[in-house]
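batch job 7 of whatever, protein = Hedgehog/Intein (Hint) domain-containing protein
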Amino acid sequence: MTSGGYASGITTQGGSLNVSSGASVDKSTASAGYINIQSGASGTGNTVAGNQAQLNVLGGTLTSSTVIAGEFNVQNGGKANIVAVSGGVLKDDAATVTSATIGGSGSANIISGGVLSASTVTNGGVVNVDSTSKLSGETTISNGGQLILNGSAGNGSIVMEGASSLLTISGDTMPTNVISGLQNGGRIDLVNLKNVTMTQTTSNGIDFLGTDESGKTVDFHLNIPNANTIGYKIIADGHGGLYYEVCFLPGSMIRTVNGDIAVENLQIGDPIVAFDWKNNKDVVRSVVWAGKAHATVRPGLPADEAGYPVRVLKNAIADGVPYKDMLITPEHCLFFDGQFVPARMLVNGKSIFYDTSITSYDYYHVETEEHSVITADGMLTESYLDTGNRSSFHQEGTVISLRSTVRTWEHDAGAPLCVDRAFVEPLFHKLDARNNMIGSPCSSSANAELIVDPDLHLMTESGATIRPIRREGQRYSFMLPANISSVRIVSRASRPADVVGPFVDDRRMMGVAVADVHLVAANKKSLVTSHLQAVKPAGWHSTEWTDCAWTNGDAVLPLGDLTQSGMGILSLNIRAAGPYLKTDAKPLLTSIRSA
């Protein structure tokens, strides 16, 4: 296609479409073969959707591109603005990519001096930035996304959001990027460090010593503002990581052979009374490690993710258990009938609740010779289990060597970890029923207002909202304009743990369950099944079902070239939806709009 040329709605099934300087191509799809955007050429709303396909920006500029499968290559100074990657590979080779969202099975490689600007990696996506390339603006890692850095990575900032966000730092050169937003469950892995020894945390970040893979002593710095007040920790298992972790708050009274001692006063070597539940007897175990850190709550997140401590009121479990109010972190486990149950699954808003009056606090770890059932405030609970997230930057008491072996719940726990609803729900209701007996001052969260209407609608690549033109039972129908290569299925979304109860160990945002999808265009009815494939587009939850899949409230549905011949009717069979919390937050995915 030569200068001045224009094409729209083309689908390549093989061969090459070359767009020269001064020409443009819009709303076209590479299903196989190549679409090449040469220097000086441009395009909007194009898609690469086949494993053998490539969309190549060879010095030109593309806007609002979608990558479902195959390769999207931006090189030779090319520019790509607003890119949605749910599968396949985005490669930025000495070019610039701005406002990209990489999720699902998608990945991105930033190489040879490439720049990634103001982008998000989420929901299974992976971004790898080589040592010559850099980040610009704010890069967000959220909800299962992974960002891998192999060097200094420029001066862009990194924001970590979501309980499973992962920043991996490979090599011996630390990034200078400002890192913020690390929350409960998020982590930083320092791949090439061994036997890490923390030195200090300051208002400017974390400074620590360690040994690299060759045995050389190294001194590194992570640029995490106010790290000394937020409570990050570094693991020492040959990689590295920063976590919030299960722990006690100050004033928790730990049972020892010398009586109950406040957790903050325990020292390495102190003898603790542990409960051998298999033989129904007490045993003595020594403290082999004690650590302390500080946490600051992040308001605006769900209470279990924000970092609020859980308060278990006096007598909430049984008469005299605990014998005073108990304060622990949400993931800390309590012991019932041979099982460890996370405190967050027992929160009833009355006798066991998130204490939102506490927004900043110290917390403590206590490790015994082996993972143990110990007693705190008269309540059976757990000691610390090093599953690869030990704090080493502020160790209390006598310094001892860290273990090199990471332990697991499956093989090393003092009792099984149980999140099974069949066990936890009856326990939850039993404890909830004690509320009237202990006179709890807190109101219940069980009466939260629910909404059944999913507010289901579609959004186009340009950001236009499409409401259903009709609904017949579970089937919603939408009128689509021509040349739409994908839509987003948008709805309300809530977490089962909030709607059903905390005894349900499912904290995913659930939108609607979509079964069969049909598109009628040009008198032809087509079945759309991308959401039912093993590798799903961004915004879909993996499921054991083969005929239905849940959205997270904002899910991409690729349509390919099905509407290139004209308008169409998209029909969705919604197998399940809601109820939803009236106050729930927005969907997870970042909105993708045209420039």
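notes: The first strand starts at residue 6 and ends at 8.
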